[in-house]
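Follow-up to my post from last week.
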Amino acid sequence: EEQLVESGGDLIKPGGSLRLSCAGSGFTFSRAWVSWVRQAPGKGLEWVGRIKDTSSGATTDYSAPVKARFNISRDDSKNMAYLEMNSLKIDDTAVYYCTTGGNWFGSWGQGTLVTVSS
Amino acid sequence: DIVMTQSPLSLPVTPGEPASISCRSSQSLLQSNGHNYLSWYLHKPGQSPQLLIFLGYNRAPGVPERFSGSGSGTDFTLKISRVEAEDVGVYYCMQAPQTPPLYTFGQGTKLEIK
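User reply:
Got it. Predicted complex:
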């Protein structure tokens, strides 16, 4: 059974940095495209960014609100993906989910809460 | 950027009755390969979102047959033939364009039981 587990969520001050982790199991992680999707309190789902599989160059793409501040990476030897968040803003407060898929998102983690507050 | 518009945003339904959610895209999602890159998700309270429908009309593994997707181009519909209590939650449509690779969700439709 495919499983994704996020970790690393925390309370962080505005301007700070945080790294989230996503551990995959039950599937060939190295072939998966991994996206991060977030849900701010009382809001809907918002795609944050994606990393392709290594054979596709592990290229990354990001939504406009996070571009230049967030960075997605992967370590296929550990079946892990990461979301490094810099220059955090209050508006980045959300539950962050990792999910897999190219044109649709078939598996989702349970999410990890990031709270940006002074 | 493509904008996804869902309606209604709130959907009270009596158990056993049908339900329908509309999703409209500001640009056609029909690709040259004949596929519409439109998917539907259900986000139940306290759970992670789950995939219901992909490529516009294909049910994901394990999704009950009462869920169906239809549409092409810019207009899509998710139908539940007979709503059950376990179907409560927020339903989202999502588009996955090829270029640029910016996924966009609809605002969400909250289904509740009357």
